[in-house]
Design goal:
Helix content is 37%, strand content 8%. It is mainly alpha-helical. It has one domain.
Length: 166
């Protein structure tokens, strides 16, 4: 993945990339890869506050984005025990199961939607109100993702597909 410009989601990498321009973050990471569900959309956001901390420290706005269909390109990533090992070793280990039960993506249309930027005021991590600001901004980010999903799911053809934020 490094060949195409991907970097580990570390604080130092975020801060370096923010100075160079826009940064896209897949918050769910390895844990979300194993959360594929045929009946509902599952997003890993609970407890994921690192991106909010970096946004506050750097004073950059957050733009909520949702990719409809991306969770269905592969119908499975592997058995649950691989999820635990992958998280522990910080490397995605799994078996992609897609079209014809091969590691080939299924032909699913992907629909990207984005919301209005969430304004962020720069706050130093040493500020006594930093953790409270992190919690408040995280709630706003989660609500923005929920709102995006609910507003656009019918356009994508999922009027009754629920969203589960875990």
């Amino acid at each position: 993945m490094a060949w195409i410009g991907c970097l580990p989601a570390s604080r130092s990498n975020f801060l370096h990339l923010i100075k160079r321009g826009t940064v896209g973050v897949i918050v769910g990471g390895i844990a979300e890869m194993f959360m594929v569900d045929s009946k509902r959309e599952r997003v890993k956001l609970v407890g994921r506050k690192g991106f909010v901390r970096v946004a506050l420290e750097a004073g950059v706005d957050l733009v909520p984005v949702y990719y409809f269909g991306q969770s269905q390109v592969f119908c499975n990533y592997g058995p649950p025990f691989l999820a635990r090992l992958s998280r522990k070793w910080r490397v995605a280990m799994g078996v992609l199961v897609g079209r014809f039960f091969l590691p080939m993506p299924r032909p699913i249309p992907i629909y990207l939607v984005h919301g209005k930027p969430i304004p962020v005021t720069q706050i130093s991590p040493s500020d006594p109100g930093f953790e409270k600001a992190v919690d408040e901004l995280h709630v706003k980010a989660v609500e923005a993702i929920k709102d995006l999903y609910m507003r656009h799911r019918e356009e994508y053809g999922w009027p009754n597909r629920p969203l589960s934020i875990e």
